[in-house]
Design goal:
Layout (H helix, E strand, L loop, with lengths): L5 H9 L11 E4 L4 E7 L8 E3 L5 H17 L2 E11 L5 E6 L4 E8 L2 E6 L16 E2 L2 E3 L3 E3 L3 H11 L10 H5 L8 E4 L3 H4 L3 E2 L6 E4 L1 H8 L7 H12 L1
Parallel strand pairs: 2-4
Antiparallel strand pairs: 1-2, 3-7, 4-5, 4-6, 6-7, 8-12, 9-10, 11-13
Length: 238
């Protein structure tokens, strides 16, 4: 039995009918509401970069349409890992792939896009202390969780207070004493997506949000920016 080609694999798992997948970084199924990206792991098995403006212009423009479906239409992001090599002309060509699909979360960095592995994150808001705030140090339980900084949370709340910075919900105003000093603190770039220890700025990287807004920020396989969620709220209320 012949080894399945990349084109045959993409057509089979996505329900498509490409004659060739050459020059394409992504593939979209509107029927399944799924977008599949190839993830080149030739030089780095942990690579998560799926689209960059430094790549071929036509391929970037084609895949950007798919990125927008993930961001704005709730399409699911899937990846499969590929290998590439240089041919005698110095051109990058395909050199095999793994026929396994993996669901990922989208991380947007201006015009660069990454597919971040899904991790179960510790429900603890924060712990640790210190005047310098470092986050993202992985500790192993049965899944990866991330240590969080208590002092950083307090610095954030000292500036913003206990009011949701997206919808302006005030727990103490609605629930009285029971709701006093209750709020979630959202990491604008989730620790599960950073994957490394980094120095945290609690006044720029953290924001108080109510549980509803917190859930909506993370829903759909990728994380919205707070301002993006504000636009949705204002649009729906207008």
């Amino acid at each position: 039995m012949n080894k399945e080609s990349r084109t045959s694999f993409v057509n089979r798992v996505m329900g498509l009918s490409f004659q060739s997948t050459q020059g394409k970084y992504s593939y979209c199924s509107d029927a399944k509401k799924q977008v599949l990206f190839s993830l080149d792991c030739s030089n780095d098995p942990n690579n998560n970069l799926i689209l960059s403006p430094t790549w071929a212009k036509n391929g970037y423009s084609h895949s950007l349409k798919h990125i927008n479906k993930i961001r704005h239409q709730g399409y699911e992001l899937l990846v499969f890992k590929t290998q590439t090599k240089k041919n005698k002309k110095g051109e990058t060509v395909a050199d095999g792939f793994s026929p396994l699909l993996e669901k990922r979360k989208l991380l947007v960095e201006n015009d660069v896009f990454r597919a971040i592995p899904l991790n179960i994150i510790s429900s603890e808001e924060v712990h640790m202390s210190g005047s310098s705030y470092f986050e993202g140090m992985t500790k192993t339980i049965t899944v990866n969780a991330y240590e969080r900084n208590t002092a950083a949370r307090q610095e954030c709340l000292k500036k913003f207070g206990y009011i949701c910075q997206i919808c302006e919900f005030n727990f103490e105003k609605i629930y009285g004493v029971r709701g006093k000093e209750f709020i979630h603190v959202h990491h604008i770039v989730p620790l599960s997506e950073i994957k490394a220890e980094y120095k945290l700025n609690p006044l720029k990287d953290l924001i108080p949000v109510c549980p509803n807004c917190h859930a909506m920020l993370h829903r759909g396989g990728h994380t919205l920016l707070p301002d993006e969620l504000k636009v949705i709220i204002n649009k729906d209320c207008s």
